[in-house]
Design goal:
The complex is a heterodimer of chains A (234) and B (217).
Chain A (H helix, E strand, L loop, with lengths): L8 E6 L3 H12 L6 E7 L5 E2 L4 H6 L8 E3 L1 H6 L3 E4 L3 E5 L4 E4 L4 E3 L2 E4 L24 H13 L2 E5 L3 H12 L3 E5 L12 H11 L12 E6 L5 E7 L1
Parallel strand pairs in A: 1-2, 1-9, 2-5, 10-11
Antiparallel strand pairs in A: 3-4, 6-7, 7-8, 12-13
Chain B lengths: L2 E4 L8 E5 L2 E4 L12 H4 L1 H5 L9 E2 L2 E2 L2 H19 L6 E3 L5 H15 L4 E3 H17 L9 H5 L2 E5 L3 H4 L1 H14 L2 E5 L5 H5 L2 E3 L6 H9 L1
Parallel strand pairs in B: 6-7, 8-9, 9-10
Antiparallel strand pairs in B: 1-2, 2-3, 4-5
Classes of the chains: A alpha/beta (234), B alpha/beta (217).
Chain lengths: 234, 217
């Protein structure tokens, strides 16, 4: 059907994450919702997946396929147009149009912005170097998995749950992991010291495990341009 | 020796002085000047009551933590299996820390398989934070308690301070007696606070934004 001639209300969603697609699922259940056509823009080149389970993917307990919430069939069966790998960069609310990074422009009747959040990294010198990544999406996991295949040592900065999960996953992928945490003990607000040593024993980081109290990490650059050294000032 | 501490209940933060078995309002504290509400005054009785629940109970019988947690897990699993993930919801405390929220969210979204989780952080504070950031540039408390004594007009938007912040409410009423402060209460409910206000605006639930936008134009 010619899109321009489609008389139905056009509902555009920016963000192909859990919140955006949950909204679409709910919309499809409603009588009036079924009468609108839906277009979804996702900056990531994937269908809708369960971000919460990425730690399990990193650790090898689950595949990316197993954490997909809505497959491409679901989008097709429900008549949803999905643009993946297409970040929306502009909204003109007067003209009711959006512009994507590729320059693609589309008009909407209703617009939902469900883009989620970006991880906040502390302003550590060298944070932008290659080989440094956050732990937020499939691309980050793929970066870590690639590093685990070709490299031996990993440093995780941050001893909260996500940091521990990253350290655990990288360890399972065969890397020797150093965990650096700002405070003297891991998860200092949640756990007693005895619990913390239990976690350390459980993770068994072995020789490479280092708990650097009050650590301030500088990510240094080696001659190859890769982050080669981390200086932790105790 | 008297130990000076703070009442843990509401956000007023009344000073409390404890000496042995005696607990009273701290006369030198700038929030309450020695006054306490009925909850604060009864604090002593909550510290070491013999009938306090310290162990889990299952069907009226004492149980250990493993039994209690197994029961909770089995019931969640049973309900999820019978009625689906959408049959379960979490309403989570606003007093959690980031890591605690991570665990709660992971349990709900990663394992129970639903997005039905919200916290009192949002209900209680999110709109206030957003408003403060837009109005003042950061999430701050833009007033102080002395303002209650110097204000000509006090507008209470959805606040039942007569019940919820009684010590502060008494400060406002004392100021009104002294200088004739006008009090406006905006609330769908005719609360104890609304009863004593000079103007009571009993809005229909959900129309407060209309009221405030109306005041702007």
């Amino acid at each position: 059907m010619n899109i321009a001639a489609d008389p139905r209300e056009h509902f555009v969603v920016i963000g192909n994450g859990m919140a955006g697609m949950r909204t679409v699922e709910e919309l499809l259940k409603r009588k009036d919702g079924r009468h609108c056509r839906v277009t979804v823009f996702g900056a990531e080149p994937h269908v809708n997946y369960n971000r919460i389970m990425l730690s399990s993917v990193l650790a090898g307990d689950k595949s990316i396929g197993e954490i997909v919430i809505n497959s491409s069939e679901w989008y097709r069966e429900n008549g949803i147009r999905l643009f993946t790998g297409e970040a929306v960069t502009g909204i003109d609310s007067a003209a009711k149009t959006i512009t994507a990074a590729s320059g693609f422009m589309l008009s909407y009747d209703r617009l939902l912005i469900a883009t989620g959040s970006r991880p906040l990294a502390p302003p550590i010198p060298g944070i932008g170097l290659a080989g440094v990544c956050a732990f937020r999406d499939i691309a980050d996991v793929n970066k870590m998995l690639a590093a685990a295949r070709t490299h031996k040592r990993a440093v995780v900065i941050g001893g909260g749950l996500l940091g521990l999960e990253a350290a655990f996953g990288l360890k399972h992928r065969g890397m020797s992991v150093t965990l650096i945490h700002l405070m003297p003990t891991l998860m200092e607000r949640q756990l007693r010291k005895t619990d913390v040593s239990a976690i350390r024993d459980l993770l068994v980081f072995g020789r490479a495990y280092a708990e650097v109290s009050q650590a301030r990490a500088d990510i240094g650059e080696s001659a190859s341009g890769k982050p080669g050294a981390i200086e932790a000032a105790a | 020796m008297s130990i000076r501490t703070t009442c843990p209940y509401c956000g007023v933060g009344c000073g409390v002085a404890v000496a042995g078995e005696t607990l009273q309002g701290d006369p030198a504290h700038p929030a309450n000047f020695g006054r306490l509400c009925s909850k604060g005054a009864a604090l002593k009785d909550t510290l070491a009551p013999k009938d306090r629940l310290t162990k889990p109970r299952l069907f009226g019988k004492e149980a250990n933590w493993d039994q209690a947690l197994d029961f909770i897990a089995e019931e969640f699993t049973r309900i999820r299996g019978m009625y689906g993930p959408q049959s379960i919801a979490f309403y989570v405390s606003g007093q959690f820390l980031t890591e605690d929220y991570y665990v709660a969210n992971k349990l709900m979204k990663g394992f129970i398989g639903s997005g039905n989780i919200d916290t009192n952080s949002r209900l209680c504070m999110a709109s206030s934070v957003a408003g403060h950031v837009r109005a003042f540039g950061e999430d701050i408390v833009p007033g102080c308690y002395e303002d209650f004594e110097e204000a000509d007009l006090a507008v209470l938007a959805g606040s039942n301070m007569a019940w919820c912040h009684p010590v502060l409410y008494q400060r406002l009423i004392a100021a009104r007696d002294k200088r004739g402060t006008k009090i406006v209460a905006i609330d769908p409910r005719r609360t104890a606070t609304a009863e004593t206000a000079d103007v009571f605006l009993p809005l229909a639930a959900g129309t407060d934004v209309l009221l405030f936008n109306g005041l702007l134009v």
